[in-house]
Specification:
It contains 19 helices and eight strands. Strand 1 and strand 2 form a beta hairpin. The strands form two sheets. A six-stranded parallel β-sheet has the order 5-4-3-6-7-8, with helices on one face. It has three domains: 45 residues, no CATH class; 221 residues, Rossmann fold, CATH 3.40.50; 172 residues, no CATH class. The longest helix is centred in the middle third of the chain and has 24 residues. With 471 residues, it is α/β, with parallel strands linked by helices. The chain binds magnesium ion (MG). Magnesium ion binds next to loops.
Length: 471
């Protein structure tokens, strides 16, 4: 007898011991799935790779939707720009090459598939092994020492601070935290941002010679601290309401919103939560606009009457039987909290422009007051550990567990991801309905793990696939 995932209890009883040989292991593995993902681990992990059994792809129509599990960056929001900026900044800091003349910057086609959607360690590891030829030892130390001091004094994420202190200690630099200069900086944290050059210069003069010879693994750890410092410094400014100023500084465009929801997110969340009732059909024009925004092509509607009927039926269904929903992100909680806070304030503003009754708008507005009113689970990298993030299944498995979805209902779950590693993580967690929703930065990814690739994103899933329900 095979269970849904194909595992065979009789076979298991016959050959499963706590320790088994490779032949029996191969036989056992075969019972788990017909398809496996090969997941490469960071250099300092045993084993070098792991095989993850994938859930079979599912495309059959649904009768009910138990849950939707959704990635954050690139799927629910557009924050990838900030992450990519911070990664490029890290390489510039470690090399001292700050202008495009000195170094052209990251390669859209070759680099982006390797620096989006995975764990920060993997992103940094990739970039360091590709660009270490540009590095300068003094620049690395200067950038790292500033990042470490900033994180301990100005940073707000406790886990980050602890990691930075561990790194300092491993580099024999823990004494720095007792130095008069450090204590002076700690006494006026607000000034640290403006004194970056002076602080880096002073620290490298005083501590540069104490550093041991830096190995590749050291460079990755230092790079991670430099990356996070930049990213978190920007997040702190966004939280202070300086988004426009940052956009002008970094992208020469004050109107560019650094954090905003992906097209169709407000409609999709409101629909599957059952908030739209009989007014869902009034939002079809805005959903069509969102489809066009996401896919770049206008939606060629079949009969508009048929479309209205389908949306109306879907909305009725979800009013009676709302789905659960979770964010599943490889970002740490500190980041996800700020990002989703910003996303929900934009969603609240979007809501006010929609052609819905005041009564309904007010009811939905209450739900949007805090993102936790909408999400039944909110899973971040802080729920796991850096070495078990996507493409490993852990974050999605934690989400399914927190959403209280039993394994027999995994077939009624939809997962959304914009990256290769995210789609693998969804299927490795046992979810066979895995929708890739690529956006500009992840178009070059390999999506063979996905059940369906939807360039029209969430609006396409509603408009052409009916959220997988029978029309
Ligand atoms: Mg993503």
């Amino acid at each position: 007898m095979l269970t849904a995932m194909g595992y065979n209890p009789l076979l298991l009883k016959r050959i499963m011991k706590k320790i088994t040989d490779k032949n029996n292991a191969a036989e056992l593995l075969q019972t788990l799935s017909g398809e496996f993902a090969v997941i490469k681990n960071p250099e300092y992990i045993h084993p070098a790779f792991e095989l993850a059994p994938l859930a079979p792809k599912l495309t059959s129509p649904l009768e009910s939707l138990t849950a939707a599990v959704m990635d954050m960056d690139g799927t629910t929001t557009t924050t990838e720009e900030l992450c990519i900026h911070s990664l490029e900044f890290m390489i510039r800091k470690m090399s001292g090459k700050f202008t495009a003349d000195e170094w052209i910057g990251l390669d859209h086609t070759l680099d982006y598939p390797n620096i989006i959607g995975n764990s920060t360690t993997k992103h940094v590891e990739y970039l360091i092994s590709k660009y270490h030829g540009l590095f300068d030892q003094t620049e690395i130390k200067r950038a790292y020492l500033f990042a470490a001091v900033w994180t301990i004094i100005v940073g707000l994420d406790q886990k980050r601070k602890e990691e930075v202190i561990i790194n300092l200690t491993n580099l024999n630099l823990a004494g720095l935290m007792k130095s008069p200069f450090f204590l002076e900086l700690a006494a006026s944290p607000a000034a640290v941002n403006d004194r970056e050059n002076e602080i880096g210069e002073k620290l490298v003069k005083q501590y540069g010679s104490i550093f041991p010879e830096l190995t590749r693994t050291d460079l990755v750890k230092l790079g991670i601290d430099i990356y996070y410092q930049r990213y978190h410094a920007i997040l702190q400014r966004i939280k202070r309401g300086e988004s426009r100023q940052i956009s002008a500084e970094l992208f020469n465009d004050p109107e560019k919103r650094l954090i905003q929801p992906m097209p169709g997110i407000l409609f999709f969340l409101s629909l599957i939560k059952g908030w739209l009732g009989n007014e869902a059909v009034d939002l079809i024009p805005s959903l069509l606009k969102d489809y066009e925004l996401k896919s770049g092509t206008p939606f060629t509607a079949q009969n508009i009457g048929t479309l209205q009927q389908r949306i109306s039926r879907l909305s009725d269904h979800f009013v009676k039987d709302p789905a659960k929903v979770s964010i599943v992100t490889s970002s740490i909680f500190y980041e996800a909290d700020i990002v989703m806070g910003e996303v929900f304030s934009v969603l609240s503003a979007q809501l006010r422009t929609l052609p819905l009754s005041e009564e309904r708008k007010n009811a939905i507005a209450q739900k949007l007051e805090h993102y936790r009113n909408t999400y039944d689970a909110f899973i971040t990298a802080s729920d796991s550990t850096e070495i078990r993030l996507k493409p490993h299944r852990d974050l999605y498995s934690i989400a399914l567990h927190q959403l209280n979805v039993p394994v027999k209902e995994f077939g009624n779950v939809i997962g959304f991801e914009d990256s290769e590693s995210g789609t693998i993580a969804i299927r490795a967690a046992g979810i066979g309905r895995c929708i890739a929703v690529p956006f500009a930065q992840t178009k070059g990814h390999n999506f063979e793990a996905a059940t369906m690739v939807s360039y029209g994103g969430v609006p396409e899933v509603v408009l052409t696939h009916n959220v997988f329900f029978t029309p």
